[in-house]
Design a protein that fits this description.
Mean pLDDT: 88
Low-confidence stretches: 175-181
Largest sheet: 6 strands, mixed
Strand content: 15-25%
Structural class: alpha/beta
Number of helices: 7
Number of strands: 8
Order of helices and strands: HHEHEEEEEHEHEHH
Radius of gyration: 17 Å
Shape: globular
Helix content: 25-40%
Length: 187
């Protein structure tokens, strides 16, 4: 999303001289104009493949608006959020809808869940909603908030994965799987 803690590194990368394609939600007008001075910018659309086997939810409404990444693997879907301002449950539901024809479970939802101001009761409801969506494991990080992270760990036990800088998690992605897992409703 369009907060400095999520886009602040773009200038440093572009100053190295590389010119990657940058996929940005359409409403990020000022950011797009700034980045377009140095490299190619593409407006994301729902279900767009931004790299081989990596898809975007497209711009989701929230304050601020943002996108999340969805990766179909051999075992199911991985959902990667920025801060989840639109809501981790809404983002996860959107990710599932992209691959509903493939009937893939969500094996991991990870990233910021933006729950710092939520009560324990609200967090418990979010955990229940994620379970109802079939989410198998979570890795809440960044702006989830320490109390919410502790609550996920306490309630989910082994289905909670501690995240952090440098953490590596490996999942198998095959070319055949990607060809079969074309998102529903291509834009």
């Amino acid at each position: 999303h369009n907060h400095y803690d999520h886009v602040g590194g773009v200038d440093s990368v572009l100053q190295t001289g590389v010119q990657p394609t940058v996929y940005v939600p359409p409403s990020f007008t000022t950011l797009k104009q700034h980045i377009a001075q140095s490299t190619n910018v593409i407006d994301v659309e729902r279900g767009m493949e931004v790299a081989p086997g990596i898809f975007t939810t497209g711009e989701m409404r929230g304050s601020p608006r943002e996108q999340s990444l969805v990766i179909p693997t051999d075992d199911g879907i991985i959902v990667i959020t920025g801060c989840a301002h639109p809501g981790i449950v809404a983002i996860t539901a959107e990710a599932i809808s992209l691959f509903e024809n493939a009937d893939l479970p969500v094996i991991l939802a990870m990233g910021g869940f933006h729950l710092m101001e939520k009560s324990e009761r609200q967090i418990d409801r979010i955990i229940e909603d994620l379970r109802d969506l079939g989410v198998q494991q979570v890795m809440p990080t960044h702006c989830t908030g320490d109390e919410a992270i502790a609550r996920f760990a306490a309630v989910l036990g082994e289905d909670y994965i501690e995240g952090g800088v440098g953490r590596v998690i490996e999942f198998a992605i095959t070319a055949e799987e990607n060809e079969e897992s074309d998102p529903a409703g291509d834009a």
